Amino acid sequence: MKELFQHAAITDGITVRVAVNFLPEQSQPALGKWFWVYHIRIENGSHETVRLHTRHWRITDARGAVAHVDGEGVVGEQPLLRPGEAHDYVSGCPLETPYGSMEGFYTFHREDGSPLEVRIPFFPLSAPATAG
Q: Can you tell me where the transmembrane regions are (predicted)?
């Protein structure tokens, strides 16, 4: 099954694509817990080799509460992407509300050591309506 990437952003030839899905089996709405899984594909369409060093997420819930999440790499990796290469990973996001959003950026380093901030596109987190 081919995954549909619903959101994309391009920064200096580097494309970040996102597919997001609500996981009802990991959610417990009666307890105020909703969970999404997201698949990210990073494609290096530039002419430079780059390494992903850090990530920054801005996660907003339905109440407007914002969480900033910073860390090294993605799911324990700091992938090196040569021109034309791509890296895929899957992660998840829990919220205490049935909808919210995520966005952010990755910091890559070029071969000469200079940083490159690559935008992660805004994407909504939305649980299907449930009978109350």
A: none
